[in-house]
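Entry 12.
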Amino acid sequence: MPAKRSSSKTKTGSARNGAKLAFVAAETSEALTALKALKKRYGGVAPEKADVIVALGGDGFMLRTLHRYRNLGTPIYGMNRGTVGFLMNDYRSAGLSTLLQQAHRIELHPLQMVATTMRGATRRSLAINEVSLLRETRQTARIAISIDGKQRMDELICDGVMVATPAGSTAYNLSAYGPILPLGSSLLALTPISAFRPRRWRGALLPHTATVEFTVLNPEKRPVSAVADDTEVRDVVKVTVTEAKDVTLTLLFDPEHNLEERIIKEQFAP
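Predicted 3D structure (tokens):
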């Protein structure tokens, strides 16, 4: 069972199996209506006291919830009250305790981005989906790429470039024609965004242990921003990306909608 049991089955905020639940929702009418209905039915506790956090919204809200509560180590069960819902389960108000008992656990390690700006400032941020570098002006970016301390590309002329996790490989990475990575692949996708030179370069598959370093060439004339999920750092000169091995995020999925199966299905989508 993914959730810890409480000794009291009648405690406020508990589902019938004794797991203390916290409900959080996106600021949309659909999500807030679901929040009200679930709290009325199951009660609810603060996320800091919960055994399971139930997130109501879309994929963007799930990413924000994972970031916000990452230090708690609490499993998060998402229910789709948004649009795509790739990281979410179907919304069902009844039988939540049974759904949680049967849910599959998926553990993810995010990426750690360390970005240095032209002013010498250093910013750190975690990314569950991807770290991307993007040109800030009409001029293409010029970026050198090193892997584990060895320079692999002297100059990539492009709109941008990204490193994506398996969980994020079906998001922005897929839109940029990057590969879909199964969860158990222990790989990262290094994917260019509208590469001009080398024109035929389509990226690379890297071991999840790789350290990827991007150096922005001529940053004054061709400024570049770095984005870790939804955290942006502008005017960067160097960006290092590694797997955050000390951070583990746990998501819960219904057996018929588990994340690994969704990623496999996406590879056969029309």
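Annotation: Residues 1-12 have pLDDT under 50 and may be disordered. The chain has five helices and 17 strands.
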